[in-house]
Amino acid sequence: MPHVHLNGSLVDAHAATVSVADPGFTLGDGVFTTLLVEQGRPLALERNLRRLLGSAERIGIPIPDAALLRGAVASLLAADGVQRARLRITLTAC
Q1: 48-59 tens-digit pLDDT
Q2: 25 Cβ partners below 8 Å, 6+ apart?
Q3: Are 24 and 30 in contact (CB under 8 A)?
Q4: Using one digit for the tens of pLDDT, what is the confidence trace for 20-34?
Q5: How far is the CA of 74 from the CAs of 3, 82, 87, 93, in angstroms?
Q6: What number of CA atoms fall less than 13 Å from residue 6's CA on the CB side?
Q7: Which of 59, 84, 89, 77 has its CA nearest to residue 2?
Q8: For residues 94 and 12, what is the distance between their CA atoms, to the nearest angstrom?
Q9: For the chain, which terminus, N or C, has the lower number of CB atoms within 10 Å?
């Protein structure tokens, strides 16, 4: 069963919901990055996180701790046993 990491928790992808009041949903107020996962490892994760967090800071989105994002990526990949994939990380102002 696929998972997502949402608001600090690993949840079943089919049960995940985003509020219709979320600025990322209503205004497109968010940033994202997409990276490749090969052999279960996210490629260029640090570079992508630096760019993502820098973009979030520039437009005033609260910046999560990079260590929390790394942990979220690791737990998601481990939970699903992903070996090869595209992984999208999205931050919104909510």
Answers
A1: 999 999 999 999
A2: 18, 19, 92
A3: yes
A4: 888 888 888 899 999
A5: 12, 10, 11, 23
A6: 13
A7: 77
A8: 20
A9: N
